[in-house]
Amino acid sequence: MATPTLQNYIDGRWLDASGGGTFENTNPATGELIANVAKSTVADVDRAVDAARRALDGWRLYPAPKRGEILYRAGEIMLTRKDDLAREMTREMGKVLAESRGDVQEGIDMTYYIAGEGRRQFGDVVPAELPNKWAMSMRHPVGVVAAITPWNFPFAIPTWKIMPALILGNTIVFKPASYTPLLAVRLVEILEEAGLPKGVINLILGSGGDLGDHIVSHPGVDLISFTGSSDTGSHISEIGGRLLKRVSCELGGKNAIVVLDDADVDLSLDGIVWSAFGTSGQRCTAASRVIAHKSVAKEVVDKLVGRAKKLRLGNGLEASTDVGPVVSASQLERVHSFIPIAEKEGATVAAGGHVSTEGALGKGFFHEPTVLVDVKPNMRVAQEEIFGPVTAVIEVSSVDEAIKAVNSTKYGLSSSIYTRNVNNAFRFMRDAETGIVYVNAGTIGAEIQLPFGGMKATGNGHREAGRAALDVYSEWKSIYVDYSGKLQRAQIDAAEGTKTAP
Ligand code: UN1
Predict the structure, then answer these.
(1) How many CB atoms within 10 Å of residue 137?
(2) How far is CA 438 from CA 129, 222, 275, 480, in A?
(3) Which of 293, 407, 428, 476 meets the CB 3.0–4.6 Å disulfide criterion with 261?
């Protein structure tokens, strides 16, 4: 079968990159070539932004409930293609099939949830302080949205940005990670089939760098919504800040699971293994720290090491695989570089620690599920995001010390506590400096109907998903209608028969 070519989508047309350049999309488990991909240039970005700008008025004025109907149709199509999309996702970025199905399902959930906002988008109607005067607020689209998305959730995360942007009447330039162009193409195909008018979404394939900078600084782009590394997020924010653009960033995490002395230890292990090694540790929400009370620490470590060693690495399409590859050679190198860093600082590798090259694994990018012990909260492996199947166990002597350790990194995305003591649970819920808190569950698996995002260096104050997503993609407009037929001065004039404050 001939290798397919993935194209850009600009103004309702599928197009090669101007200049005709391509790059390869390969399977991280096998090295197999999946597709040749349009390598876009800044000229393609200009065309995409221009198309999005031209489509803006038509889309903004298209009734929101009708916009919602297109989204519902897109959700239906996603549902019928769930299995195919999941298989393509596993081939493209490696996560095991059950998790790819989960990723697609999360996209479906988000699409349906946001479609309903076509008939809501509530504003406030409040009493005015003067007679015969009306006061209300409504949402207004921001304009052209650049959605810059990562490879680890190649379907769900684009829907977190694209669906709320669309329902509010914005148009889009979508730039997915260069490792996952196929799932991005599939999502745009679905929106096209569902009836989205031309120009409303435009897809630009290629890798970040110059292309990304051009998108972010483009005068025709009003809002940048980015998920990815903290370094890139701060670079984008710097450019966006200077140009007074709206910028919403979802960045790194260094999420922790606390296991207290009163916890159900076996239950906590299920949560730790799933959160640390699921998606090969490549979730922003992955548990890359385990903070265990000293009276249960040995039991936690022994059981965790036993479980980590049993996990089977392999191609995510095979039912026997527990943990797939990491996404690329450079990611594998980065993950593995933390092993000597850990050892140099005094930590010990209790399980894993190697790149796996045995048999067929040698063709892909596999790293053993790794457990580090003798870790102190200030070590690099306890502070920096690794984004791979590596977790670091830290011992503490009290709930206070545990909370202090949880909060001791610059990040603040997700945290979890295992305890049977309701007082400890509530203290943790109150004091953890993270945007997501779990009690007696791991750090991954957020549902789309609540806000998703983090405190501190994990973001810049915005949230995706839930009702909060609407705040990113709209401006508030407050409207006063004076139907008294005369000049009424707020804060100065009083209605007849009433008194103003002295
Ligand atoms: C991410 O890793 O950026 O909460 C998203 C979770 C998933 C989303 C993760 N629902 O783990």
Answers:
(1) 14
(2) 44, 35, 12, 43
(3) 293
Its sign, for the CA torsion 274, 276, 280, 284, is positive
Q: Which amino acid is at 232?
A: T
Which atom of ligand 1 approaches the CA of 447 most closely?
10
- Residue 311 CA to ligand 1 center (angstroms) comes to 21
**Six-digit token pair at 454?**
């983090």
Residues 6+ apart with CB under 8 A from 121: 64, 138, 139, 167, 168, 470, 474
pLDDT tens over the chain, length 502 residues = 789 999 999 999 999 999 999 999 999 999 999 999 999 999 999 999 999 999 999 999 999 999 999 999 999 999 999 999 999 999 999 999 999 999 999 999 999 999 999 999 999 999 999 999 999 999 999 999 999 999 999 999 999 999 999 999 999 999 999 999 999 999 999 999 999 999 999 999 998 888 999 999 999 999 999 999 999 999 999 999 999 999 999 999 999 999 999 999 999 999 999 999 999 999 999 999 999 999 999 999 999 999 999 999 999 999 999 999 999 999 999 999 999 999 999 999 999 999 999 999 999 999 999 999 999 999 999 999 999 999 999 999 999 999 999 999 999 999 999 999 999 999 999 999 999 999 999 999 999 999 999 999 999 999 999 999 999 999 999 999 999 999 999 999 977 766 655 5
Residue whose C-alpha is closest to residue 162's, from 182, 177, 184, 132: 184
Q: CA 66 from chain center: how many Å?
A: 27
| Closest by Cα among 197, 140, 200 to 174 | 200
End-to-end CA distance of the chain: 83
Q: Ligand 1 pocket test: which of 232, 285, 438, 443 has the largest number of ligand atoms within 8 Å of its C-beta?
A: 285
Domains, in order of start, for the chain: 5-251+459-478 (3.40.605.10), 255-439 (3.40.309.10)
Supply the pTM of this predicted model.
0.97
Of 125, 200, 182, 188, the closest CA to residue 159 belongs to 188
Rounded CA separation 261/265 (Å): 9
Ligand 1 shell residues, CB under 6 Å:
106, 152-153, 283-285, 444-446
Please name the helix (run of DSSP H) or strand (run of DSSP E) that holds residue 331, with its range, or none: helix 329-344
- The secondary structure of residue 422, as a DSSP letter, is H
